[in-house]
Automatic annotation (TrEMBL):
GO terms for biological process: L-alanine catabolic process. This is alanine transaminase. One of its GO terms (molecular function) is pyridoxal phosphate binding. It is an enzyme of class 2 (transferase). Belongs to the class-I pyridoxal-phosphate-dependent aminotransferase family. Alanine aminotransferase subfamily. Its EC number is 2.6.1.2. Homodimer. It catalyses: L-alanine + 2-oxoglutarate = pyruvate + L-glutamate. Its cofactor is pyridoxal 5'-phosphate. Keywords: Aminotransferase, Pyridoxal phosphate, Transferase. InterPro entries: ALAT1/2-like (IPR045088), Aminotransferase_I/II_large (IPR004839), PyrdxlP-dep_Trfase (IPR015424), PyrdxlP-dep_Trfase_major (IPR015421), PyrdxlP-dep_Trfase_small (IPR015422).
Length: 568
């Protein structure tokens, strides 16, 4: 390389020049080109030692030359220098099973595929778990039509907010136009493309507060206690950030249910907090048990400082709906043990089982009287991603905080300000969830008709899933009381368990991967959610259209019988 070329490639750097002659003219040429310092090495020099000496200069990154004379340098960020807590994060619902499913789906688009699944559409459908509850809308026009009928007002309002010129068009119902105008007037520059207040658009927070008051039978709700979020996940992680502190035995512990939604374990790992497991009672339809909470808390206090108790109700992945008595017991436990309560209530509209009813933690808290309503700290969460909407891509949600210390609340407001604001279209959609069409408005009858039909259909499929799975020897499924998933227990042959461990896989991961490869059905193994030692499960959605669900369940039954026979 010429002196000029070296200078361009490595300005202000130290270089070695290996030449046949030891001539000062070489030094002058290279130094003039802009390098910082140099050595001229003759053929008699100890080349290796000279290079080692130069490369050891403090503060100088190590450059390397490949056999094609291309200079490279060591990475600043490597697997060894990155944040170690990130490496501990696991998120099963987008883990190896789903990644492989996406890969298969891609292959199906490129080649003719046979004997792996019922049809290409069927595989595409089952892969939908990778995008959670909205996936079926992406692949099935019939379901898309169903959702679009239900959310005609939603689609109209979002269209009007995105392109206000449409407000002049007579094709949109007047109630949709009024909602859009109200949202736009609350936005900076009358545009959802502008930043909003960090806590969220004020009129949307007011609507959320009214929704909560109506839901909870008149229990007051202050809009100033409402924070709009980027989905419920954002609010949950934000609250955990506020809670986590200390080192060693004083490090914050957070009690989470097992099985749990992997957001919690992933967030706690990233924050280097201590995960404190308490087990739901599978024999009693995944109910919470105060004696189990007491056991878990007592053990945890030996090595950390438990400060919060997280509850998912209705449950994900387990599909249970906690009774009012259970919620009262949990609130008393939290008050007695001085724990901050976090209530994940994103499936509050998804209750199907006869005799079950959703009770918000806030409502029960206030009905228990001032002894609890004035003292127990509570954060509750809701989202546009679940319920009967399923609009997960818009990333809309809210959290309400109760009895939070004013100084901490100021810090919370500061913390959410760092990310400027949640997505404004998501805030607009959250408003449509909590401010749905009212009696007398043009959209009301159709909205109620389709909302009722959708929830009734989900209830039917919840019952169907439980009944069919329980006909399979080796599979036991609790009633799907709410949410969108079943979480059946599976019995696995010892031979399969040994083979899985030999491959370094959890046995139910091995089982689910086999099912994916042989049937195209994408299930999430129970090990990704946590489960009692020696038990195995999988999570399966109840969202497919009924005819597809029946095919899916038949294939699960057929596979399980074949798998059991193969490894027995």
């Amino acid at each position: 390389l010429s002196a000029d070329r070296v200078g361009l490639m490595m300005p202000s750097r130290s270089v070695c020049v290996f030449t046949r002659v030891n001539d000062a003219r070489y030094a002058a040429g290279y130094l003039a080109s802009g390098v910082r310092s140099m050595k001229i090495l003759s053929p008699l020099s100890n080349f290796s030692s000279q290079i080692r000496a130069l490369s050891g200069i403090s503060g100088v990154a190590h450059d390397k030359m490949t056999d094609k004379a291309v200079f490279t340098r060591d990475k600043v960020l490597t697997i060894h220098t990155m944040n170690p807590t990130v490496k501990k994060v696991e998120y099963a619902v987008r883990g190896p099973i789903v990644q492989r499913a996406v890969q298969i789906e891609k292959e199906l688009k490129e080649v003719v595929f046979s004997n792996r699944c019922v049809s290409i559409d069927f595989l595409c459908y089952t892969v939908h778990q990778r995008i959670n509850c909205k996936g079926e809308v992406s692949f099935y026009s019939s379901v898309t039509r169903c959702f679009m009928q239900i959310f005609a007002t939603t689609a109209s309002v979002l269209a009007l907010c995105s392109y206000p010129e449409l407000l002049k068009d007579n094709m949109f119902p007047e109630d949709a136009k009024n909602r859009a105008r109200r949202i736009l007037q609350a936005c900076g520059g009358s545009s959802i493309g502008a930043y909003s207040a960090s806590q969220g658009i004020e009129c949307v927070r007011q609507d959320v507060a009214r929704y909560i008051e109506c839901r909870d039978g008149g229990v007051p709700c202050d809009p100033d206690n409402i924070y709009l979020t980027t989905g419920a996940s954002d609010g949950i992680v934000t609250m955990l950030k506020l809670l986590v502190c200390g080192e060693g035995p004083t490090r914050t512990g957070v009690m989470i249910s097992i099985p749990q939604y992997p957001l919690y374990s992933a967030a706690l790992a990233e924050l280097a907090a201590v995960q404190v497991n308490y087990y739901l009672n599978e024999d009693k339809c995944w109910s919470m048990d105060v004696s189990e909470l007491e056991r878990s808390l007592s053990e945890a206090r030996k090595y950390c400082n438990p400060k919060a108790l997280c509850v998912i109700n209705p449950g994900n992945p387990t599909g249970q709906v906690q009774s009012r008595q259970c919620i009262e017991d949990v609130i008393r436990f939290a008050a007695k043990e001085h724990l901050f309560l976090m209530a994940d209530e994103v499936y509050q509209d998804n209750v199907y089982a006869e005799g079950c009813q959703f009770h918000s933690f806030k409502k029960v808290l206030f009905e228990m009287g001032p002894q609890y309503s004035n003292t127990v700290e509570l954060a509750s969460f809701h989202s546009t991603s679940k319920c009967y909407m399923g609009e997960c891509g818009f990333r809309g949600g809210y959290m309400e905080v109760i009895n939070m210390d004013p100084e901490v609340k100021a810090q919370l407001t500061k913390l959410v300000s760092v990310r400027l604001c949640p997505p404004v279209p998501g805030q607009a959609l959250m408003d449509l969830v909590v401010n749905s069409p009212k009696p007398g408005e043009p959209s009301y009858n159709n909205f109620m008709k389709e909302r009722t039909a959708t929830l009734s259909l989900l209830a039917e499929k919840a019952k169907l899933t439980k009944e069919i799975l329980n006909t399979v020897p080796g599979i036991t499924c609790n009633p799907v009381q709410g949410a969108m998933y079943s979480f059946p227990k599976i019995s696995l042959p010892e031979k399969a368990i040994k083979e899985a461990k030999a491959l370094g896989q959890a046995p139910d991961m091995f089982y689910c991967m086999k099912m994916l490869e042989e049937t195209g059905i994408c299930l999430v193994p129970g090990s990704g959610f946590g489960q009692k030692e020696g038990t195995y499960h999988f999570r399966m959605t109840i969202l497919p259209p009924t005819d597809k669900l029946k095919i899916l369940l038949a294939k699960v039954k057929e596979f399980h019988q074949k798998f059991t026979k193969q490894y027995s």
